[in-house]
Amino acid sequence: MAFAGMLEDRLAIRELYGAYSAAAMSEDRDLYLSFWAEDGVRLSRDAEACGKAAIAEQWDGIWSIVGQMGFFTEIAAITVEGTTASAQVYCREIVVLKDGRVWKLIGRYDDTLEKQAGEWRFKRRVYEIVLNESAAETNTSIS
To answer: How far apart are CA 13 and CA 5, in angstroms?
Structure first.
């Protein structure tokens, strides 16, 4: 994957990722959900959410145990073809759970995006943990 397609679209997608990170760190549920297509899909090793309502439920489940989150992204690739795009993004996550435990992760998203009414939205996000520093320190597994 590389960087290809209209620069204006690639910039808008980069800004989407920045705003997504800000929504995660500030626990802004409404902002987070605004980035998703109505029929968006979020997949991870242990969870699947299909549609914005299911993604909202997943968000609520995550934040029921999370007290604070640091979430930073690094975009590895964006390819835009008309009103669709694919991207690969790495993220550094530091998560403080409500019970006091801390999880430190590096994850990767393989994304499909769609331009709807002039705005880029996530159509499909597939998340994978690349490095789980917490598991190495405490011999625990998280998803």
So the answer is: 11
Q: Domains (ranges, CATH) in the chain?
A: 3-138 (3.10.450.50)
The DSSP call for residue 35 is: T
Sign of the CA dihedral 120, 121, 126, 131?
positive
For 92-131, what is each residue's pLDDT tens digit? 999 999 999 999 999 999 999 999 999 999 999 999 999 9
CB-based contacts of 79, cutoff 8 Å, min separation 6:
1, 2, 3, 4, 5, 85, 86, 87
Residue of 63, 58, 54, 51 whose CA lies nearest to 24: 63
Question: Would the pTM count as exceeding 0.85?
Answer: yes
Q: What would the pLDDT profile of 59-87 be if each residue is shown by its tens digit? A: 999 999 999 999 999 999 999 999 999 99
- Hunting for tokens 């979020």 — which residue is that? 42
Phi, psi of 100 (to 5 degrees): 95, -15
3-state secondary structure of 125: strand
